[in-house]
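The authors assume throughout that readers already know how a fold can be written as discrete tokens. Each protein is reduced to its one-letter sequence and a matching series of backbone shape codes. I therefore recommend that a typical entry be quoted early in the introduction. For illustration, here is how one protein appears when written out as sequence plus structure tokens:
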Amino acid sequence: MARANVKMVPVPSTSIIPERDLYKLPVLETRHLGIDFGGLTAVENFDITIGRTEISGLIGPNGAGKTTVFNLLTKVYKPTRGTILLNGQDTADMNAVQVNKAGIARTFQNIRLFSNLTVEDNVRIGLHNSVQCGMFSSVFRLPRHWKSEREAHERALELLSIFHMEDLANHEAGSLPYGAQRRLEIVRALATNPSLLLLDEPAAGMNPSETAELMENIRKIRDTFQIAILLIEHDMNLVMGICEGIAVLNYGRIIAKGTPDEIQNNPQVIEAYLGKQKEG
């Protein structure tokens, strides 16, 4: 599959973003971000800038700290030091729920669906950020309640249609095949109306055909919703084929940032990650 030819341009920091995003406020900036666990540094000086419609990748060996970075961005962990700017707003005083409402949604390495609920109900849970019906209307089943219910149903089906899953709306989420559950988790994250979508190993467990379809759907999501996407992934064909900017993490530190071509030809990256993978 041919990779999109996107020109990346420098910004005032040490980062690069797509040229189309140059005069827009970055969706995410981190400065000197780090965290210690029991005196041990897990992440240090994690500096990254992501353009408003960029598809960006975060790669590195197992244990490099990639999921820890996602946990910092979503406030599962509180940073020991550094700054996270989301749409220009400092998230220092935000908790996980507030960060989600401010614009970050994520998926997980291990699928976290409500397995006993229907596919549609899983998506509707993600719609909480846009619910326009108060408790009074819901308790007394006022017209606003039924209007809100109808709108939630229609929005859930609309989101499911991204992955052609609307016909599965009434199925139990836990009964879906593995790949479909991964797609449902992405749809649920989109339901929160994010400006930045974090995907933690979205292709894990997928066959080559499913992975190719996922690549097209990630592009479709970015183009349809005009949002940024940051993904952690070990499938190098997916990363190099879809990401515009890539950061490489090793032992909690960024050792390289650049375009796919620059990363593939970076000696430090080859030694620390890509080369080791080839040797195995």
